[in-house]
Write a structure and sequence with these properties.
InterPro entries: HAD-like_sf (IPR036412), HAD_2 (IPR041492), HAD_sf (IPR023214), LarE (IPR005232), Ni-pincer_cofactor_biosynth (IPR052188), PGP-like_dom2 (IPR023198), Rossmann-like_a/b/a_fold (IPR014729). Pfam families: HAD_2 (PF13419), Hydrolase_like (PF13242). With 489 residues, this protein is an alpha/beta fold. The chain has 4 domains: 131 residues, Rossmann fold (3-Layer(aba) Sandwich); 59 residues, Orthogonal Bundle (DNA polymerase, domain 1); 148 residues, HUPs (Rossmann fold), CATH 3.40.50.620; 98 residues, GMP Synthetase, Chain A, domain 3, CATH 3.30.300. Helices cover 45% and strands 11% of the residues. The protein is built from 21 helices and 15 strands. The chain has a 6-stranded parallel β-sheet, sandwiched between helices. A 4-stranded parallel β-sheet has the order 11-10-9-12, sandwiched between helices. It has a 3-stranded mixed β-sheet with strand order 13-14-15, with helices on one face. Helix 5 packs parallel to helix 10, helix 7 crosses helix 8 and helix 10 crosses helix 11. The chain is elongated, with a radius of gyration of 29 Å. It starts with 18 loop residues before the first strand and ends in a 6-residue tail after the last helix.
């Protein structure tokens, strides 16, 4: 299949973005001390006896509702205005984040999600609280109560809403979102459950674990639904954690007899990868084919400019297409995940997409961490397998790629693995910078190992100089040189 015969890009398969909404008072923050102080100021100014302890025991409804308990109707609006005048100076600094808030927001970020706050509190006050406590929330919304909160939740496509009040459950239900209740406000866990909360937690410290399990379940369900829509499938199987999980998922979804695992053999595949890949496919009962790819015949690949991966992936998909045709298979899937999609410069993903390859893991929004977690739960041997990009990724951009250079890197990395086997080495990269090499190993090992021994081992494979990178292993470090070549000469 030539580039002139590029197939149409696959139709998109949308899984909703993770958007989580939170109530503010007594869900994210304990604002009672400051609120009580403002009510005490109003009482002092007006001479009206206000039980401020009672007020803060029933936070949740709009301010006008509470104000009507203490002032006649004709004075409510004026007292609300006065309350809001006092609020920024007296109510903000006394608020504290409730336990688990930072961890909950971080868990959403780790899942590539967005956050919002929907509160009955005045919007400017919501912003002040979040800014004061340094809570990184994407969208603060105020002045909404009860089912009205559903309007904002629907607008921002929030699928989960977390609150401490029965009114928050109303808001979630109005939006068709999962109602998660925390028993940190005026209602007990039993009361929240009886009112209709879908999930009840004691507090936000329990939220990250619940969220991670819930989202993984939803994304796995979406993945299996997507895979089940195909009668047969070819999986581009490198042997890494992502493609291995995709292969296992496809075998589960449509049966191993309907799945073909294709591991491309080329100088860029480390020798140590092929045999484990064959064992893995055999254990699943899927057909394993090993076509030879010829990316080295493509000038764009050999030239090794920043778009090298484009030509490699183009060669792969175009090599797999005849195999798919032979077996009567209409879809070729790659192991691209959700993290890959936001990693910036990824010309290989574009090449595969242009040639009609599908990306079920990315489309299901599965992150690398989720893939590893699901792999562990399925008992896959690849669950903790270190990342193993192709050998060409070790060659500095601008240096023409040859089989000899790839073999030299492969031998050098094998030598490092042998040297550090007793240390539990997980990740190693020998970056070919020309005649010199940069050695990247797990950061925690850098201070524990003899650097000179590593340098000697690498130089013995044909490099004239080498050094251990003090920053340790990191995926895509060659792209750092692409962005700022002078810094890494």
């Amino acid at each position: 299949m030539s580039t002139a015969e590029i197939r149409p890009a696959p139709a998109t398969f949308d899984v909703p973005e993770l958007v989580v909404g939170f109530d503010l008072d007594m869900t994210l923050i304990d604002s009672r001390p400051g609120i009580q102080l403002v009510w005490d100021l109003l009482a002092a100014e007006t001479g009206v006896p206000i039980d401020s302890e009672l007020v803060v025991s029933r936070l949740g409804p709009p301010l006008t509702w509470e104000m009507a308990n203490w002032f006649p109707p004709e004075q409510v609006d004026a007292m609300v205005t006065r309350y809001r005048e006092h609020y920024p100076s007296h109510a903000i600094t006394g608020s504290l984040p409730l336990p688990g808030v930072a961890e909950s927001l971080a868990a959403i970020r780790a899942l590539r999600g967005r956050t919002m706050v929907v509160s009955a509190k005045h919007t400017p006050s919501v912003r002040l609280h979040l800014e004061h406590l340094g809570l990184d929330v994407d969208e603060p919304v105020g002045d909404l109560h009860g089912a009205e909160k559903g309007t904002a939740l629907r607008e921002h496509q929030a699928g989960i809403f977390v609150g401490d009040h029965t009114a928050d459950i109303d808001g979630a239900q109005a939006a068709g979102a999962v109602a998660v209740a925390v028993a940190t406000g005026p209602f007990t866990a039993d009361e929240l459950r009886a009112y209709g909360a879908d999930v009840v937690l004691n507090d936000l410290t329990e939220f990250p674990a619940w969220l991670e399990a819930y989202v993984l379940e939803q994304r796995l369900e979406a993945l299996m639904k997507r895979l089940s829509s195909y009668d047969k499938l070819v999986v581009a199987f490198s042997g890494g954690a992502d493609s291995a999980f995709l292969l296992a998922a496809a075998a589960r979804a449509i049966g191993p007899a309907n799945v073909v695992a294709a591991t491309a053999i080329s100088p860029s595949l480390p020798d140590a990868e092929l045999e484990p890949a064959a064992r893995f496919a055999d254990a699943l009962g899927v057909r394993h084919v090993t076509p030879h790819t010829h990316e080295m015949d493509r000038e764009g690949y050999q030239a090794n400019a920043g778009d090298r991966c484009y030509f490699c992936k183009a060669e792969l998909v175009e090599t797999l297409q005849p195999i798919a045709d032979e077996f009567g298979i209409t879809a070729i899937a790659t192991g691209t995940n959700a993290d890959d999609a936001i990693a910036g410069f990824r010309p290989g993903i574009r090449a595969a997409h242009e040639r009609g390859a599908i990306t079920p893991l990315k489309d299901a929004r599965l992150t690398k961490a989720q893939i590893r977690e699901a792999s562990r739960s399925w008992g896959l041997a690849t669950s903790d397998k270190p990342a193993a990009a192709c050998l060409s990724s070790r060659i500095a951009y601008g240096i023409r790629i040859t089989p000899n250079l790839l073999a030299r890197v492969d031998r050098a990395e094998a030598a490092i693995r042998s040297q550090l086997a007793a240390y539990g080495l997980q990740n190693v990269r020998v970056r070919d910078l020309g005649e010199a090499a940069s050695i990247e190993i797990d950061h925690e090992l850098i201070a524990r190992v003899d650097h000179q021994e590593l340098v000697d081992a690498v130089m013995a494979e044909g490099f004239t100089a080498a050094r251990v990178d003090p920053r340790g292993f990191r995926s895509g470090s060659m792209n750092e040189r692409l962005k700022d070549p002078d810094k890494y000469r």
